[in-house]
Here is the input.
Amino acid sequence: MNQRLHLFFLGCVILALFGSDLASAQDQADAQRFFPRQGYLLTGYGGAGYQTLFAEDSQPNDFSAIFAPIMLFQVSDRFLFEGELEFEIEEEVTATSLEYAQVDMALSNNLTLVAGKFLLPFNTFSERLHPTWINRLVSAPALYGGHGALTPTDPLLPVLSDVGVQLRGAFNVGRFRTITAEAFITQGPMQAADEHDEDGDEEGDGHDEGTIAAKAVSFASGGGSADPGSLAFGGDFTDNNEDKLIGGRLGFGIAPYFEVNVSGMTAAFDPAGDLRFSALGAHVEGRHRSITVHGEFIQTWQDIVHEDDTDTLTRNGYWVQTGYRWGKWQPVARWTQLFEGDIDGEVVTDAGQQLALGLDYWFEPAVVVKVEYLINEEEHSIDNNRLAIQIAFGF
Here is the structure.
């Protein structure tokens, strides 16, 4: 009897082993039949760094680390899914965020429909330049919040991503000449949570990378004040009003030497849909042998409520960056200027300037060590500079 039981169990094990192999082979055959051109790719970027701040009321120095895997799955020549997760150490915890998760559908050789959460095609830094091993400096330009930025005053925008749909097109208009166009509709910005809740405890929403926080602005006449509040982009998949963010970008390029883009977007951000945030941008990029030049300009308009009236806070700024590749060495310099904000011609927010000086050494085409010194010039701070070192890689 025991011998028969042993033979029975042995037969079950053999059947399970061979059956699983047959099932696996059948699954692979079915997948190959339904997705004959499928493919997987795991890529991404990461880095580790160290910084020391010279402001009296700041943490004197700290280490940092970031890991951002990007996963791509191609079902066919027409359909591609791509997504990026970002893991970063923030305030003694590991912060996890969904940078983007989108489905790309090729409508033709020139047009692509994108749906999901994606990096907004407004100017180019958010969409193309912010990853650690692509950004030639440790920090982001002071016009943007998050991703290593240390701004002399409030930034104009975060590194932008949001949930919605976009249509992308690229058209050849001559030898090496291309016109690109993107149009998008997304959930849009909304008023972010306050920095402190009713009990005085901090809430994490007030300073995430998708938030721009504007300080209270004072009016010289009348002694009143108004608080523009904080705006969050892509922080919540549910909208707070019926209005959507509508925007687009139009560009012209001569590969690989020159590219220029103009961008715009507008949306209501309050629950009632009465207050609007709008932005215009321009980007220029030039390349000649080992020299590269980037530049961006941004102007924003944000409605605020002041003494039962609606006023518009207008702000603008620009950044220009140049670098020279000499073998494995690459010195980089970036100048950023944020102008004073005004309401009806009256100055209500501070200006700020920033100079970033960097030196990169490329061990491999996708492995770089960067040293950066930031010099901030602002009205209410004597010393808010930073020295940072970062090793970044792409894989």
